[in-house]
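User: I'll paste a sequence; please echo it back and then give the predicted structure.

Assistant: Echoing your sequence first, then the prediction.
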Amino acid sequence: MACYPDLNKNIFFEYLNDNIYSYLLSISFVILISFIASKIITKPIKLIEQRTKEITNGDFTKQLPIKSNDELGSLINNINIMNNTIKANIDSLNENIVKIKKLENTRKDFIANFTHEIKTPLAIINGYSELIEDCDDNIKKEKYLSIINEQTKKINSLVLAMLELSKLESSHVELKLEKINLGELVTPIIDNLTYLLKIKKIKIEFYDDESIIIGDKFKIEMVINNYLTNAIKHTNNLGTIKVIIKDKALIIENTGSHINNDKLENIWMSFIKDDPDGTGLGLAICKAILDLHQFRYGAMNIENGVRFYFNA
């Protein structure tokens, strides 16, 4: 040995034998330290490897524990952030998919309902057009033409209502906001409906507290007109309609039959109607207008009839 050039083998082995336990203890200590250090470093790395595999397989439910402030702790924190971000993005995508499916179903229902609504008048127009071609009686021809004109007006009303609803629901409508005296707005509408009220001998009770609201006068007028015409249609002969303006709210109550609870929930949707001569879009248009104004509104059954309202 270079360190002990003048020792013979016996002395060397005797020295080695005297210090063997110290060497073994030192080696054992080094191995133990290496093992502990390995565990400290490799265990988090194995956890990171396992967690990244779980993330790859779509499991975003777990979080890695952060037990240090070093580079490894920073890596674990970034993996947790990545996990949460991916989970949030996937949840958002799933919500959008549900919304898209719902919109697609609504679109299909809308088209199906429109097709159903327009099919009957078109069939009538087609039928009477053929009758006119083979008819020599001028009186009958005039009758057939009158029916065709009536059905054409129905189709035109339906198309115009759909265009109005589509425009309102697109949220690209600019409201012309101004101060509106609700009482002054309601009075001429009631006057214009006097003929319909007289036919059914309906009594109008009008209560007005001179409420002023901010809104688009023309569009709010559409809502009130729709509320009132619906009330007249569903009020029995000799019935009563109450028009109440109070605390920036308009309430219209009519005596008559209640609305079925299942229909009451969907009454603001397109093509939900009780009137065979209506388009089924009136209340859907009202809903779109009131949503644009961010007004509260609703319909409910009361003791002897039905109440519609909106509140600014």
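The chain has a mean pLDDT of 78. The radius of gyration is 40 Å.
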